[in-house]
Design a protein that fits this description.
8-stranded mixed β-sheet, 5-stranded mixed beta barrel, OB fold (Dihydrolipoamide Acetyltransferase, E2P), 465 residues, 11% helix, mainly beta
């Protein structure tokens, strides 16, 4: 009789009202809930026994793989590689006493698992020096279930982690990395690579506990040209270099793929590690000013283009661009450049240059409606076919926000232009039959798969005579 059958028999002896078929069906449900590839039949059996308050005393081998983990296992030892490591954080127990907790994700040839290091183990000597791909030995740990029922390795007072310097069959980080084009919804604990597609920015939000937080947002493009939205919760710009060029290579360690409003999205958290090409210092940027919009705080929001027809969104927090007019060629020293997002602050400078014919003008970079593609930024010129419509839209959180939309066409096609919140007022005054020039539009997939253009804080609508 196999070890699995012996354990199953022990469970059935203590729960005679159950049949083998009942247990097999529950094993199937456990594996479906936790995800394919993360749980063996034997591991699921231990979770089921725990649900019934039964302890299967027969231990697995002391040296095991991640796929063999089950809640309740004690003094387990295993060899694995580091996927990512989060900073240690201090929390308070119910009695007010403090404790430290650090999280890691580890992997072997077959699976991944979360590791929690408690109290003094959160600051083990050398833990800060561990890098993704490092081989480690986890010694005398215990296993508990997390909120999703997945087994989690816990490093307590009697446990330890040691760096290992020997050959291993566990693949390196480079071998498990996947291109954006290769990942699928539902996958987790991934190493994903791609290139920056557009801007990188920080989002402020309030979590379910009413606490403020930040998240990094970007898009990554894969080898096949498709791009995917990325949200890294708990991350901000402090983890990025000051200079990230358009098309920079990115690798994210410890992310998952979730459904979003416009297709699959990559989501990460505080434990996610970011490797991104870039430099500590920003470099001078020479562009032509295409349009200047003014934000609610009075800052200039400039759309500009370089000699390679790359569009840039320049946020001026220092009033450095007050000398600029639309059409000017300027040189600026930004404080930060993230893809096509440029920040000017008190340490930046801006100066006008002589006209450079190699840098295109607005008329030269306008796009015909028939050439618009999803997830790109555009400038267009078109005629208004319908009077703009303004309406209030209720969000899931109960917030009411304004949406204005106008239907336009050029000699190649028709398209909707939409503006949310403050951008809604940009199209409100457009009139039927007018020709308008619109800069800084973002193309997204709308209803029934049709492409729609959305106004951004850098957009400007100009009526043509």
């Amino acid at each position: 009789m196999s070890e699995f059958d012996e354990l199953l028999q022990k469970l059935l002896e203590q729960k005679p009202e159950l049949t083998r078929s009942d247990i097999e069906e529950q094993i199937k449900q456990k594996k479906e809930k936790i995800g394919a590839g993360y749980l063996t039949d034997q591991g699921a059996l231990f979770l089921i026994a725990s649900d019934y308050g039964i302890s299967l005393s027969e231990p697995l081998k002391v040296e095991m793989g991640l796929k063999d983990l089950y809640a309740g296992a004690k003094e387990i030892s295993l060899e694995t590689r580091v996927l990512n490591v989060s900073p240690a954080k201090q929390y308070s127990r119910k009695d007010g006493s403090p404790f430290y907790l650090r999280s890691m994700t580890v992997y072997d040839a077959n699976s991944t698992a979360s590791v929690k290091l408690w109290d003094e183990k959160a600051n083990l000597p050398g833990i800060e020096n561990l890098k993704p791909g490092d081989l480690i030995k986890i010694i005398k740990a215990y296993v508990k279930s997390d909120l999703n029922g997945s087994p989690t390795i816990n490093i307590g007072s009697g446990s330890n982690i040691e760096a290992v310097d020997n050959d291993s069959d566990i693949p390196t980080i480079e071998k498990i990395a996947k291109d954006v084009s290769e990942i699928q919804e539902g996958q987790k604990d991934l190493v994903v690579s791609g290139i920056i597609d557009g801007m990188v920015n920080t989002m402020n939000f309030t979590n379910s506990r009413g606490e403020p937080g930040k998240a990094l947002r970007m898009r990554l493009k894969g080898k096949d040209g498709t791009s995917m939205r990325v949200v890294l919760w708990g991350k901000d710009e402090s983890e990025l270099p000051n200079m990230i060029s358009q098309g920079a290579k990115v690798r994210l360690l410890g992310v998952k793929v979730r459904p979003g409003n416009q297709g699959s999205e990559i989501h990460g958290n505080e434990s996610t590690m970011i490797n991104i090409e870039g430099g500590k210092e920003a470099e001078p940027l020479i562009t032509r000013v295409l349009s200047i919009a003014t934000a609610d705080n009075g800052n200039n929001m400039i759309l500009a283009v370089d000699n390679k027809k790359n569009l840039y969104n320049i946020s001026d927090y220092s009033n450095s661009t007050s000398i600029c007019n639309e059409g000017d060629v300027i040189e600026c020293m930004p404080s930060k450049v993230y893809g096509n997002s440029v920040t000017l602050d008190s340490n930046s400078f801006v100066r006008k240059l002589e006209n450079d014919e190699s840098i295109p003008s607005l008329s030269q970079i306008r796009t015909k409606i028939s050439d618009v593609k999803v997830d790109r930024d555009y400038c267009i010129e078109a005629i208004v076919l319908r009077v703009p419509e303004r309406r209030e839209v209720q969000t899931k959180s109960g917030e009411s926000i304004s949406l204005s939309e106008v239907f336009v066409e050029d000699d190649t096609g028709q398209i909707w232009i939409k503006g949310w919140r403050n951008q809604a007022r940009l199209v409100d005054k457009c009139e039927l039959g007018e020709i308008i020039s619109v800069t800084g539009l973002s193309a997204k997939a709308g209803l029934e798969g049709r492409i729609e253009l959305f106004l951004t804080p850098f957009s400007k609508v100009t009526k043509k005579n």
